[in-house]
């Protein structure tokens, strides 16, 4: 499932039981635009893939609080705990490996 989150919903979403991937992006970012269709495809084709998107332009407080200063940044969370942080574009297979690593 792909879900756009903001300052109000971010903490609630990452504190759920499910493993979730958070994509920190901006609409003006080229690598982010390249990554977006991959995340949409995975969210729609794989059961149990919780994928959240945070626009750092619209949610600078989250980005600042989590020290997100480069985009795209992909973070994996489970029960509110940061498991891994990856900076830069990731291909489809690498994202699948990331989910499998923590499932």
Class by SSE composition: alpha/beta
Topology as H/E string?
A: EHEHEHEEH
* Strand segment count: 5
* Percentage of β-strand residues: 25-35%
CATH class: Alpha Beta
Number of helices: 4
Helix fraction bin:
25-40%
Main sheet attributes: strand count, strand direction, barrel closure: 5 strands, mixed
Architecture (CATH level 2) name: 3-Layer(aba) Sandwich
Distance between the termini: 16 Å
CATH topology: Glutaredoxin
What count of structural domains? 1
Describe the structure.
The structure is a single chain. This protein has about 100 residues and is an alpha/beta fold. The chain has one domain (about 1-100): Glutaredoxin (3-Layer(aba) Sandwich), CATH 3.40.30. The protein has 4 helices and 5 strands; from the N terminus they run βαβαβαββα. The chain has helices at about 10-15, 30-45, 60-65, 90-100, and strands at about 1-5, 20-25, 50-55, 75-80, 80-85. A 5-stranded mixed β-sheet has the order 1-3-2-4-5. A hairpin with a 2-residue loop joins β4 and β5 (about 80-85). The longest helix has 16 residues, at about 30-45. It starts with a strand and ends with a helix. The mean pLDDT is about 95.
Short recap of the structure:
By secondary structure, the chain is an alpha/beta fold. It contains 4 helices and 5 strands, in the order βαβαβαββα.
Entry keywords:
five-stranded mixed β-sheet; Glutaredoxin; globular; 37% helix
Topology:
Elements: E1 2-4, H1 10-14, E2 19-25, H2 30-45, E3 50-55, H3 60-65, E4 73-78, E5 81-87, H4 92-102
Parallel strand pairs: 1-3, 2-3
Antiparallel strand pairs: 2-4, 4-5
